[in-house]
Write the structure tokens for this entry.
Amino acid sequence: MVAELALDRVFHALAHPARRAMVRRLSSGERNLSELAEPLKMTFPAASKHVRVLEKANLVKRRVDGRQHLCRLHAAPLKDATQWTEQFRQHWEARFQVLDALLEEMKSEEPRQKPKRR
């Protein structure tokens, strides 16, 4: 149950485009809150709220250094989300392989001639 709750929080956090953008930016290194807010054209308080959601999902670690809020990515929960979605990728890949085989079979059959009308 705890793992499911953690997974729910990760997917909730990633559901918002601003938070996904923040995660992308943090993947290249630590950033302060202003650096996260600026390209998204949002206020410091709005960015802080988004970071709190990411913190709750354990995707971001924040430390305060004086007046600066420094954030860094904690990517471990993304691994759990990837593993969860992987099962569905495998399912659809298997289904597409069946479809490919069927299409190849249909392509190799000789075209049937339509009966001539009188």
Remarks:
- The domain at 1-108 is CATH 1.10.10.10 (Arc Repressor Mutant, subunit A).
- The mean pLDDT is 89.
- DSSP finds five helices and three strands in the chain.
